[in-house]
């Protein structure tokens, strides 16, 4: 045994030396493998300049939709004495909501995994730097994603004001906007886009059929009821003061909507191209269909009708833009035109509501139609892009549920938000102020020299 120990010791020494040598030889290989793995992981989250440029452009296009697009579209539809009040409301809401989005909106929408809200992990945009890559869109800076989504929040709140224009206090509009953004827009956006309740259910909403249009339309409808009808409504003519400005605003909406829909692809890719062409086709089809239906019904095709039809087509294709094929988008537009025409005429009379800019008739009807038809025309057999495990009947049911959830949630929250604003400052201006016009009585200015 004693004789074997030296031999064993020598053997172990040789084995250790061999192992060490092998480790030294293998070290470069291991290091190279680690570098490759790191490079792959880095490549997967590398900022792409093309995608970033497109998303920056899309963000600016959506801003163009709001200021001046939406502001002019609504401003032309009211009487001249209330023109500046609408411009001021839209402009101020855009400014206010984009700031609130950075303070807490983005975090509560995209910062966690709850069913209705996120968390406060990104409060005040905490942890985000110029080099931070978006977790939602892995090829663009997170700041760009924050900016893009802020415009969606802003336009959703701004859409509402068209329903109760010409008779609502500016302070009440601002209070309502803050409350509604916090308790209706944020949870809806989280439920659909932030991994919440409706996302888990498989609801499809490419760019905001439920989150933006139905959400805003229901809030506008509730507001129109709660504020009440304008003085003289139904007894005297209350015509739009400038259909020229409405047409300009509508055209800017259409141009900006390419950022809204195609930008929701999140990259400069085929999905963006599909959403882009669908935004052209559905809108054109809806404008023509509205014009034909209006001609058959009234004997004349109005400029306001053509522009309204275009907006109805834009609204309808929004939830479906990246899921349906071009021919499907045309069919959706052809249906949207006459249906939204009914929304601003027959349905509006049935509801007995003074919705000045037809927020519900266009955005509500078009949004509901688009959300449900998305479940139909995303079928591959109809030229669409099917989600995994797609079944038409099941998907349509999921889409229908998402519409109902949106209507109920927004209806209840909107009512409460209006009541709070009413208690704090009152919703409606005095009769004298309404007769004189909100431009002078609220803002001390006039849109036009008299």
Number of domains: 1
Q: Could you tell me the strand content as a percent range?
A: under 5%
What is the global morphology?
Answer: globular
* Low-pLDDT regions: 1-12, 14-19, 25-30, 32-44
Mean pLDDT: 92
Order of helices and strands: HHHHHHHHHHHHHHHH
Would you report the number of β strands? Answer: 0
Q: How many helix segments?
A: 16
* CATH architecture label name: Orthogonal Bundle
Head-to-tail CA distance between termini: 119 Å
CATH topology title: Ammonium transporter fold
- Structural class, by secondary structure, is mainly alpha
| Largest sheet: number of strands, sense, barrel closure | none
Helix proportion of residues, in percent? over 70%
Regarding CATH, which class?
A: Mainly Alpha
Could you name the key traits of this structure?
Ammonium_transpt_CS, ammonium channel activity, mainly alpha, globular, 71% helix, single chain, disordered N terminus, Ammonium transporter fold, ammonia transport, 450 residues, membrane
């Amino acid at each position: 045994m004693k004789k074997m120990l030296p031999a064993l010791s020598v053997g172990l020494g040789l084995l250790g030396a061999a192992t060490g040598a092998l480790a030294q030889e293998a070290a470069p290989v291991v290091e190279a493998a680690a570098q490759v793995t790191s490079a792959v992981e880095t490549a997967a989250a590398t900022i792409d300049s093309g995608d970033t440029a497109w998303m920056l452009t899309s963000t600016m296009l959506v801003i163009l939709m709001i200021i001046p697009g939406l502001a002019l579209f609504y401003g032309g539809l009211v009487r001249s004495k209330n023109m500046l009040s609408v411009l001021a409301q839209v402009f101020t809401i855009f400014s206010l909501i984009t700031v609130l989005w950075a303070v807490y909106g983005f975090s509560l929408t995209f910062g966690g995994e709850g069913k209705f809200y996120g968390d406060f992990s990104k409060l005040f945009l905490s942890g985000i730097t110029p080099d931070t890559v978006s977790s939602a869109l892995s090829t663009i800076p997170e700041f760009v994603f924050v900016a893009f989504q802020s415009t969606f929040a802003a336009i959703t709140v701004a859409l509402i004001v068209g329903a109760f224009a010409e008779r609502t206090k500016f302070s009440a509009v601002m209070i309502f906007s803050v409350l509604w953004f916090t308790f209706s827009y944020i949870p809806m956006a989280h439920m659909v886009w932030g991994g919440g309740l409706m996302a888990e259910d498989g609801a499809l909403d490419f760019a905001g059929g439920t989150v933006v249009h139905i959400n805003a339309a229901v809030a506008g409808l509730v507001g129109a009821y709660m504020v009440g009808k304008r003085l003289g409504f139904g007894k005297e003519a209350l015509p739009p003061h400038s259909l020229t400005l409405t047409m300009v605003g509508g055209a800017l909406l259409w141009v900006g909507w390419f950022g809204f829909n195609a930008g929701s692809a999140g990259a400069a890719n085929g999905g963006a191209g599909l959403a882009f062409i669908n935004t052209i086709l559905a809108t054109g089809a809806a404008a023509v269909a509205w014009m034909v239906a209006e001609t058959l019904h009234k004997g004349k095709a109005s400029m306001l009708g053509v522009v309204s039809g275009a907006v109805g087509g834009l609204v309808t294709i929004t939830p479906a833009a990246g899921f349906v094929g071009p021919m499907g988008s045309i069919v959706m537009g052809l249906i949207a035109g006459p249906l939204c025409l009914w929304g601003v005429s027959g349905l509006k009379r049935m509801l007995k509501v003074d919705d000045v800019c037809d927020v519900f008739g266009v955005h509500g009807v078009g949004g509901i139609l688009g959300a449900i038809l998305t479940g139909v025309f995303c079928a591959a057999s109809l030229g669409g892009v099917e989600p995994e495990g797609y079944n038409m009947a099941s998907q349509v049911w999921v889409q229908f549920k998402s519409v109902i959830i949106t209507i109920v949630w927004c209806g209840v929250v909107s009512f409460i938000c209006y009541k709070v604003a009413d208690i704090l400052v009152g919703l409606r201006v005095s009769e004298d102020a309404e007769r004189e016009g909100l431009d002078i009585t609220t803002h001390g200015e006039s849109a036009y020299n008299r």
